[in-house]
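Submission sheet (multi-component)
Chains listed below:
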Amino acid sequence: MKKKIFSLKNSTKIFLLILLFSFLSERALYAAYSSSNCQYLRMDEAGGTMEHIPVMDQGDTKFCFSYAATQMVDAYRFSHGDGRLYHKTSPIAAAIKMFLYKKDKSNLQGGGDQCKIANYVRRYGSCGRYAIKDYFKADEQGKYLESFIAIHKNYQSFKKIYSLDTAIAAALTPGISAKKVIKARRMITRDAINQVSCQLPQRGEFTQYEMTSKQILKALDEDNPLYLLEDILDTGCSKGGTIPYNGGWFSWGGKGLFSKKYLPYCKNALLRGQKPSRYLKEIHQKLNGSFPQQPVSISYCSQSLKKGKGFRGLRYYDQESNAQSSVKESKGRCGKHVSLIIGRKWNAKTNKCQLLVRNSWGTSCNSYADDWDCEKGNIWVDEEDLGANIYEVKYLGN
Amino acid sequence: MKLNIWVIKFLIFSFFLVFRVEAQELVSFKVNDQSVVFYDYQDDRITISKNCVKKKKIQPCMAYKALQAASFQTLAEEKFQGGANPGAVICKALKGKVVIGEDKKANENSFCLFEDKSIIDNGSLSYYATQNDNVK
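Outcome: structure written.
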């Protein structure tokens, strides 16, 4: 009887041991499988694609998409033989020039497409960061933009009234004669020109650029306030030159001594409405597939960087609705943003794959969650948490 | 023998000095074409200009006071569109001036400059705004 009980107990022990072993081996197998799909990669280290691209801070400007796009462009140039490391594409200039080209005023309120920027630069070249620094002093990036837009808005609203026939304008404004309308029109125009002149870089400080009253008036008359900045940009850009000129550059190798290289088109790899695993798969495929590895741009909820593990900023709707509208951000929770993925590592402590996010909020790590390791503005985030907050993936090339 | 003791003393002092310098966590950035030194209190998540610190203690300068006033609650959502740095948006709301600093490797970081010339990292402002809002 005693023997039977012992044997029973032993069998239970053996059963439990087998169960434990199978559980652990499953975990080990999962970890081994996941880690094999999460090979170490870091583009900002020596020899990496992003080695020569510093961390940037967009301040209070609303051009995150342009910061991501221009870094993708430069990473491609530098890793494909373009040795002009001094020419780093200006995100502000690229965004303004692209808006002017597309005649798209809506983007001034923030938000835009990183592929539109990259493809614009591919075709028309880019302006160097240092070439325009004198005009858009780095410490006051948004100043000119904001004041120009305000002056332009005022001028346009007055113009709407006073550009009417003098008699009609006088009739619409009780107590004001046609003569006074003409006088007021002149005064408003003069005031607007003076305001713009005052906002322009001081003559003594920036002798390279002067804008005549005629030029200012012409710019004020345009529908898009950004025309005011075009002259300034063009003057600055011509100093540093636009790169890539005619869409390409020469580098060693190829059929001849030199061969011409071109920027590839930017690809909208995955737009809204996909499952997190699909976005992650696309990112890994791009990271594994291209050599030299290129950064991948993601549109995602920036709050995931601040809130840490478990944060979900997107609301998922049923599959019946169409793909474009099937994912919406939870109001006030997401913090729509665009950044780059520039690395990957397996975290052996947590048994999780992490992706390295290159943000455009400078080198400071003060604002990010404790859950994520931050290295000078580059943040290691668990792919599981990042994937659940991504809603678009874009990159250069196929 | 005496010489050896002095050598050991010197080595200990040097080690102590180096350790102290590292513990202070000084970082420098070029702001408005001038080199500005910052104290980086990593545990407290505060990076603040040297002119705000005396004997390693932060003085009640405008930049430090801004940490207490920082909040996201009163700010419109549109201001954060286009991925604007949240700290820079708060800086403007607190009537500071957003300035971009550049380190030796040309990496950028934005700071908030106040009238008394004290400067604080926008990341610190963003962190304390979240903390303040959580308390409220």
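Remark: The longest strand of chain A covers residues 336-347.
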